[in-house]
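fwd from M.: "can u put these together and see what the complex looks like"

so here's what she sent:
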Amino acid sequence: MAELTIEGATTAPTLATEGRGQPPPAAGQPRPARPQPDFDPAAPQAFQFTGTGSEYFRIWVVNLLLTILTAGIYSAWAKVRRLQYLYRNTRVNGTVFDYHGNPIAILKGRIVALVLVAAYHISFDISPVVAIAVGVVLCAVMPWLLARAFRFKMANSSYGGVHFHFRGTGGEAYRKLVIFPVMLGAIGLFAWSVATSFSRNPGIGFIVLVALVPMLALAATVPLAHYFLKRYQHEHADFGTTAFYFHGNASGFFKTYAKAVGFLFLGSIPAGIFAFLTARVYALLADTLFGWLFTLLYGVLSAYAFYLFVRAYLESRIQNMVWNHTEIGQHRFESKAGARKLLWIHATNLLLITFTLGLYKPFATIRLVRYRVESLSLVPGGPLEDFMADRMDDRVGAAGQEAGDLFDIDIAL
Amino acid sequence: MIDAYFFDGSSTRRHAVQLFIHKGIVAMSGEGVRRSVRLSKVQVSERLEHAPRILRLPDGGHIESSDPSLEKTLRRNGYREPRVVRWQRKWPLSLCALVSLLALLIAGYQWGLPWAADTLVQNVPPAMEKRIGDEQLALIDAGWMEASRLDPQEQARLRQLFAGLKQPRGEQTPYRLEFRHSTMGPNAFALPNGVIVMTDQLVKLAKDDKAVLGVLGHELGHVQRRHSLRRLFQALGVGVVINLVVGDVSSALAAVPTFLLDQKYSRDFEREADQYAIDMMQANGIALTPMAELFEKMAASHAHDDDAEDDEEQEDGPTAPNGKQDEESRLVKSIEYLSSHPSDEERIARLKAADGQRGVPGAGG
């Protein structure tokens, strides 16, 4: 959800901007600031998010109730309401974003996606050959689905009455994203090697080979794939008639991922020391009446702590890297998302969601979106001219987007 | 008079305008802008607390306004907010929605999901059940089972003994009894393909044919009621709903509530299978106390799990098959055992009580 807002949050400032030293209009101030006559091209325009948890909570509850009551049909309308809420509460330079997705189109897309998912699951019960065939077909259409998903999302986002567009074609997606099937193959090989080394007892060399090769393949492809995906997304985007330009490079992604893996290893050292020091307390607690619950939570949380840590790191660094290397016209972006702040948000969100049995979810969403949106600003690169709309009609079906969402290929970083 | 900004849709240039809405006509005037449109042709965005209202004009232009007087003017001109939006805006109404939502979730968990799973299971083709069961058996055999070390004659004797028993209510549930040497201690479970797996260790621990027959009756109950597949569907349903409510909080963490909620279903099935065993044993005049004593012994052996009489490997167990609480991994096993402890005492008491009602002597018969 967060990435949707940020994805859409690519902006066009108008001629008028705030004067130097003046604070940007406070969040929650309903009326956009009046255009200022004195223009300063260097003043960065911070993105603002005006949504509140309590308002979003009510939308969330009603959406959830209606979705369950209508056996999921309402979920298309819920999605439009949710995105409109997030977009319309995102503003830069006093003007808000808007979302125009048509619920009927989204519903159709969801039905297509559901059929695809069902085909995928049923094929497993028919025969392994059919399952593999369906899997290959799904892999083959994935780049096309991605292209459609980006197109739908962008065509239905606007700022100041001017729509975004995504020019990326299916064919281009195949050329740029061919790495994904390779990656999936490596993951499959990895899963297979884990499964086989569990049930049999082959030589250690075999295990090392069969586990290490896919692992190296993943290490080589994941950062590259992520880089290609972001480049594909940002290079083919337009705001009106103005194109986005992305000048990041793959080495940045490799460095970030390498650091994340390094942190993972380093983090296991204090974790090990902590486990050693608390072993006795742990044994004591595990023996109590609710010891089973304690051991379960301890196991899940310790595994999750690592994930949370790495996730916050990757999320912040990649958001910064991507947006700091994106330009539109002569204007550029500045992203200052902090890993520590994100870690704090994710960790407290998780705790509060757990203790409120999920009721904190909408508040958590707003907190995360607010931080991610507000860490972004637009730096005008000289006198700003008006962005012109591209009046070419770009109505695309929602099928790609929804299928993409369900298969989780819309990578959220 | 309403303060607003007009965007003509062909550029992001913002025009400050004054808005008038009167008799269903939207009119605006500002520097270089003078237009009017019928309100019925304008798409009015839903009302949000901190975001401006957006009026989308038919030709692609739009008006943004945060002016508080816009609401009243719109209402006076016959604009009605969609019902859902009114619902979302008011706390009492949305709290009603919350209460209904919780009631719906609880009722769905209590009755809806079991009913749906039951209905679904009736329509599952036998070939699919067979395939799932066969796959599970192959998986279990590969990871946690070895060929039975029990004397083949003993196996044949037990098979015959159980086959000779009447099934309750004249049912003719097809099943296949398999013996295995387990790497995880005493155990018995039923698979969707009608296979009942009994471990050598359980036969040895039982020391009494009546107890073994009771356990087999219990497993046959699982087969008859198709618990295996029903639990699979119910766990799936719980997972989907949790995912819907909690959303993207990683799947690993969503597994915890799914697991906890699954416990009740598991206990319900155990109770049902116990009742089946009671019916079957009583129909054949076999005492249930030996089975109850076997459960007591198993419970005791779990309590000393970590004393580890057997130094065999402690792998993760298969999670798919159902049956008694001990077919899963050591960790999950002890968790599940402890969480269903009260129900363990309860079932032992019930088995013993069943004998009392019939006046069958505990040791004899």
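replying to her w this: The first strand of chain A starts at residue 45 and ends at 46.
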